[in-house]
Protein 1
Amino acid sequence: MIQLQNIAKSYTSRGEVIKLFEQLNWQIETGAWIALMGASGAGKSSLLSMIAGIIRPDIWDIQLWDTNITHLSRDEMTRFRWAHIAFIFQAFELIPNLTVEENIDLVLDISQAPRRYDTEDILERVWLSGKWKRYPIELSGWEQQRVAIARAFVAQVPYLFADEPTGNLDEKNASKIMELIRTLHDETGNTIIMITHDAWIASHADITYRLTGGELIKE
Ligand SMILES: Nc1ncnc2c1ncn2[C@@H]1O[C@H](COP(=O)(O)OP(=O)(O)O)[C@@H](O)[C@H]1O
Ligand SMILES: [Mg+2]
């Protein structure tokens, strides 16, 4: 379960205060696949970064299963994040000087989480068999995105946070990514929060929330 209570956060930018949240509450059941929608600038990425302990709210109480991250030091938070949360970003964020295999294995090394899939197995699942030794630059954007999916599922961590995971893909490939995530989600039972601006992408999730005016509304 993910539980947020009374979150307040504002940014100050050139003397101007932008209030993102004043008293935000949210509860997500374990194993759910949540889509988070909302206009550009609504605060979706900020909210996800707060739940991942990357950005600190002004007032907060965030519980991830049995850990209240509010009380973790920065170092404890970093260790906790690697051991519990996988990420998929719009821009893939593969490490350019590591091969596909090394990019995937690096996550296992750093997170210290148990392995869920053999690298060979997970690469086959994302239709990249035989591409282990390639560097990211030797792959198309569509192939790189599938490496990012493989990397997000290889370690046994309970949460997956995805920020516009199909942002740069055409509809046909975005649809294949959604099918992949559905299969791997059903297999692993992980809890997913997926940011998207696209209602059709959101329709693949179990529940959609819209972030608007600093409030979360279930659709
Ligand atoms: N570090 C920051 N400093 C000041 N303002 C920020 C910062 N990060 C985000 N913002 C502002 O907060 C608002 C929400 O941003 P963001 O969370 O990226 O929204 P979304 O992901 O929904 O597009 C925007 O107005 C953005 O300009
Ligand atoms: Mg964003």
Protein 2
Amino acid sequence: MASPNFIDELKLYVRAGHGGAGAVHFRREKFIDKGGPDGGDGGQGGDIILKCNPQLSTLLHLKYHKHIRAEDGGNGTAACCRGANGASKIIEVPKGTIVTNVDTQQTLADVTADAQAITLMAGGKGGKGNVHFKTPTHQTPRYAQPGIPGEEGWIHLELKLMAEVGLVGFPNVGKSTLLSTLSAAKPKIANYPFTTLTPQLGVVPYKKYNAFVMADIPGLIQGASQGKGLGIQFLKHIERNLCLLFMIAADSEDIYQTYDVLQQELKTYNPAMLQKRRLVVISKSDILTAAEKDIIRQRFSATTCTPIFISALTNEGLEQLKDQIWHLLHEH
Ligand SMILES: Nc1nc2c(ncn2[C@@H]2O[C@H](COP(=O)(O)OP(=O)(O)OP(=O)(O)O)[C@@H](O)[C@H]2O)c(=O)[nH]1
Ligand SMILES: [Mg+2]
């Protein structure tokens, strides 16, 4: 069903590097009698670091790398030489990725900022070499510390896309058309339901220097929250949107009932979805007469929402829509 190129959930086994062992060694040189201990320390194991890459929008690149290991620290050597530190491993993830520890269910990271880097698993410390253990009464210590093992475990990565505005609506109402009109995104548009199979993001420029991110998800149908259609798989991608745009096509059988169904589906999925700021948009308004628009306005007058009539064909209402979205995003 959904595109295999969009992965928004997977499990990885990650292992930070072990610390290197400290060395047991004694200085041996010609003409130097009983040179004393000179075993060096082990190096530090590499960390597993999670880093945000804002260019990414899926976890696909990690699908075939189930086990990720950072380098172990090198062992200490003679002449008090310290082992090399192990190289850390950086896992790049898209903005909006949430990482949990599979065993403890503890959230390890929530990547919400562009330049965020988090140490998921710390590398082990290197052990001390025998040079540290000589004392006035014990001048030939024949032991050194082993390195400490690095942290390891299964982690669960889940992507919940971060957009300011989410588009919700039945299939074929013109969600992708709107995204492609307002932003540089090029989603597939066609006159049949479920054209969009994976969430799409677009940056909508506003006035001269402003912009906001809009997310287009596959269309919802009645029963989506129970798993019908593609609905539930993608509802999580609008969970973190600041505001929702309920899009209803002007050619829908009953516009108000459609609005009700959309609200019900979101509520069943997660009641908090209805707490979000929202706009109601009637798409394909080019097919409506002024009288028909008045009737629709009247039906919505019982709610707190005044519908905005838009058309991607005639550009009707698009500027007003952007103004309202901007206002909604910045009203608090
Ligand atoms: N007349 C008219 N047709 C439109 C308008 N916007 C979109 N359409 C048409 O509606 C059809 C569906 O458009 P899409 O943008 O693919 O709809 P969608 O909501 O993304 O559909 P799914 O991805 O299947 O959920 C296309 O044939 C568009 O040309 C509009 O403003 N006016
Ligand atoms: Mg679409």
